[in-house]
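Annex B. Sample input.
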Amino acid sequence: MKATPTTRRVFERVNWGASALLVLAIVAMVNWLAFRHYERWDWTSQGIYSMSDRTKKELRALKQDVAVYLFMSEAESNFPEVKELLNRYGAETTRLRVEVVDPDRDPAKYKILAQRFDVATAVDQASGQQFADVAAVVVSGDKRWSVTRDELVGVDVESMDDAAGPKVDVKAEQALTGAIVQVVSGKATKVCLTEGHGEWTSGGEGQARSLRAVETELRRDNIALENIATMGRSAIPAECDALFVVGPLRAFRDEEAKMIRDYVAHGGNALFALDPVIERESITPTGLESVLAEWGIAVDASIVLELSSDRVPPPGNAAGPYFVVD
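Annex B, continued. Sample output.
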């Protein structure tokens, strides 16, 4: 495939949009990996003021202290139900401590704890009320897990047309108990990022190809990113729960590709986010084509582009269009 100057400009615009898609893909995959580290169970339909036997069993079995920081204002409509549920959690064990972090009643405390746990704050333009982008942070030792508002409370879609308005479906027990199990017994998830080929890597504040924003998001959920150089290694480290290859600019050598193949063949998890890299008016190979082909994945010069200038963000903007490599 030959690249004209116009095509090159389009590729540049596509690359700017890639970061938003990478954030979504990376966050989704590592959270999936993290949840694999503890047993999933079926949750029966419960009222907000009752708890499942499984939750009671987990709470009574706690052998280490757990703190739940509830980042909700008492003015929020769902606060009483969530707080009452946490009170009932506390009645089952002396190992659980609940601390309400109310941005309206104690803004100084809220600011300190929000900074400690990387919690972002938004403001309702209509009411001026502040609210955190997470509803709770569960902490035990050096491990923590964030619980979002969507995980705590949802809308019962079957009641959307009710005269009194949609009913609230409280899912707090599943989210909170899952978070507690994660911080006391779940193995911390480590995601290894390949480096040495111009990839996006962790750290490097101010660098153009840094995943620092993604790293901040993942740190909320006890997920660590670590850069590893594949050149000169004999194997991918066993402690890597997943291997991410994100936007390499230079090709992998045959021995590196084989090492990645062996890692996946032995049960490893991998994510490949491959940008089109133009050199001498053609797309350069990644060195991973043959390995990916073994798994039924074709990497070629076919891409789908968003050509509307209205939908393409300016350089440096993290939000961008979705695109598909097929």
